[in-house]
Write a structure and sequence with these properties.
Elements: H1 20-23, E1 81-85, E2 87-91, E3 95-99, E4 107-109, E5 113-114, E6 117-118, H2 124-128, E7 132-138, E8 148-152, E9 158-162, E10 165-166, E11 188-190, H3 201-204, E12 213-218, E13 222-227, E14 234-236, H4 252-256, E15 278-280, E16 286-290, E17 293-294, E18 316-318
Parallel strand pairs: 1-7
Antiparallel strand pairs: 2-3, 4-11, 5-6, 8-9, 9-10, 12-13, 14-18, 15-16, 16-17
Length: 331
């Protein structure tokens, strides 16, 4: 574990929302480059309890009943992997969960202990649930770095702990946003940012409270805005912000790109306040803006973490916390 932790804080605007003609006066720039990471798989069912690290039910029916079979070499495999800068991601079912810099979910094991921190996952278990290396791992925005620590495993490697709990990946999580390890054996759970278990609405009766709009660190795009369900938010390059917001996505376009309805600023996290307003569209409906630019989701995104709308037609791009287009060519 690095002794010096870095925090990538997002600078939310502190000025009040200005009058329409002054708040919506300038075009925003562009942010980092992008590539589509594709659709993510839905969470799998709970598998056999047995050893506590078994398969994940129907979604993994092709796998052997004890988890990932020997020699498969899929996913993260048995190799210990560094997490880079940890991030908080919004999951539609689990609320806020802890992910690595590539967007992969981190898990904890009920058979471990936090006081004192100790891992009880070795051998085949550590093949299915690769330990997260403490090396080159740091706390990102919103994560309390004092909760991060490390333990020394029997092979001498350093494993990350969160709130005392050793952290793991799941070998069957193939893409950023996957949470197929959730509930496996009723002993494995995604890590919440405070080190506690992330719990689904159906399991706990109430989900973790989420912001109406928040920021997710995407492996390819960097910091992008997501809605309450963790779905990526986009901008249309043909829209206008000055002298007032104008949406040029109507009819069939709107069916494909649902508008983000008004969200009170108090229900956001990490979003720029300047130019944060809603407006009345030409069809009479209300739509939210960031930095006065209308925002949307994409019907082609099926799960939290999807960015299938990125770059579509050369006119649709994810949105940075300050309202900038992410990955768009410079105008």
């Amino acid at each position: 574990m690095k002794t010096t932790w870095r925090s990538a804080s997002l600078a939310a605007g502190t000025v009040a929302v200005l009058a329409l003609t002054t708040a919506c006066g300038s075009e925003s720039g562009t942010s980092a480059s992008s590539q589509n990471v594709g659709a993510t798989a839905p969470a799998g069912g709970i598998g056999g309890v047995g050893s506590g690290y078994g398969g994940v039910g129907a979604s993994a029916s092709a796998s052997a009943p004890g988890g990932v079979g020997a020699g498969t070499g899929t996913g993260t495999g048995a190799q210990t992997a560094g997490a880079g800068e940890l991030a908080i991601s919004a999951n539609g079912e689990l609320g806020k969960i802890l992910t690595d810099s590539a967007g992969k979910t981190l898990y904890r094991f009920d058979a471990d202990t936090a006081e004192p921190p100790k891992s009880n996952c070795d051998g085949d278990c550590a093949t299915t649930w690769p330990p997260v290396s403490a090396d080159d791992t740091s706390a990102g925005d919103g994560i309390d770095k004092s909760l991060l620590g490390e333990i020394t495993r029997p092979d001498g490697t350093k494993q990350l702990t969160v709130g005392g709990w050793p952290a793991y990946y799941y070998a069957k999580d193939a893409k950023p946003g996957d949470t197929t390890g959730q509930g496996v054996g009723n002993k494995w759970f995604a890590l919440a940012p405070d080190g506690k278990k992330a719990k689904s609405d159906s399991a706990s009766g109430s989900g973790t409270a989420q912001a109406g709009l928040s920021v997710r660190k995407d492996a390819n795009l960097g910091d992008i805005v997501v809605d309450k369900a963790g779905m990526t938010v986009y901008r249309f390059i043909k829209d206008k912000a000055w002298p007032k917001p104008v949406s040029n996505c109507n009819g069939a376009c709107r069916d494909k790109w649902p508008v983000v309805e008004p969200v009170d600023f108090s229900e956001t996290k990490g979003i720029q306040k300047k130019g944060y307003m809603n407006f009345t569209r030409s069809d009479g409906d209300k739509q939210q803006t960031i930095n006065c630019f209308p925002i949307y989701t994409f019907s082609g995104d099926k799960a939290p973490g999807d960015i299938n709308g990125q770059g579509v037609g050369g006119t649709w791009y994810a949105v940075a916390p300050n309202g900038d287009l992410v990955g768009a060519p410079k105008q």
